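Board notes (copied after class):
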Amino acid sequence: MSSISTNQALPQAPAIFPTLPPIHWTERYFRLLWGSLGIVGCLLLWQIGSSLRIWDPLFVSSPLEVLRAAFIVVPSKEFMVHVSTTVQCLLIGLFIALFVGVFTGLPIGWFPRLNATFEPVIAAVYGIPYIAFLPVIIMWTGIGMTSRVIIVFWSAVFPLTINSIQGARAVDENYLRVGRSFSATNFQMFFTITLPSAVPYILAGLRTSIGRAIVGVVVAEFFMSSKGLGYFINLKANALDMAPAFVAIVLLALFGIGLVSLATYIENRYCKW
């Protein structure tokens, strides 16, 4: 009977989560350069259109006018109160939507019976514009922070839920077989296999939810607040003081770019499969 030599190395099992080659720093700077050029090009077209009076300057301020207004508006304490109100409402609603969307979507995608029960409900409710719920939310919670957070939550939760469902469905069955071969429980496989595998789907849903949440908080502040950037934009637009209104709009855009860039960085940094 032949024996296996102790010096003979056993073949290594393939990695469950194969890593992708890292993005070279030159490619990152190349993307940053082209993204910056795109923004500069849009600003240039905006300024040219304003100079040629393609649109009425009464309603659309030029970038130079917006920049001059920013030096006046941004340092004021009143404007900072509006900014902090919007940021607080946005982050609270987005965080709740992330938690609820992930920890309801993953079980729905994981268990077929839950999937069959709740997926048609999610599809039906997702098709209803969230602005249609404004009167009901106002009657339930009144006009205040709670109602605005609910609107932000409602705006952001469905992309996260749907993407979490898809992420749970997309788990490779081979990974689950490996987990079962090591006698892992469903709880262990959920947190060590399903959740990590679904992270790219969750982050993709988060990027979509960020834009929807910003729209939601602005709409909510139009109708249900006396503070916030949405209220500030509405107030200045009604007074035809458009340059400060565009300052708030540009700030919202920059905030959205920052949150989406953060989600993209997390995905590129930590999602290696």
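Comment from the instructor: The radius of gyration is 24 Å. Residues 58-270 form a domain with the MetI-like fold fold (CATH 1.10.3720.10).
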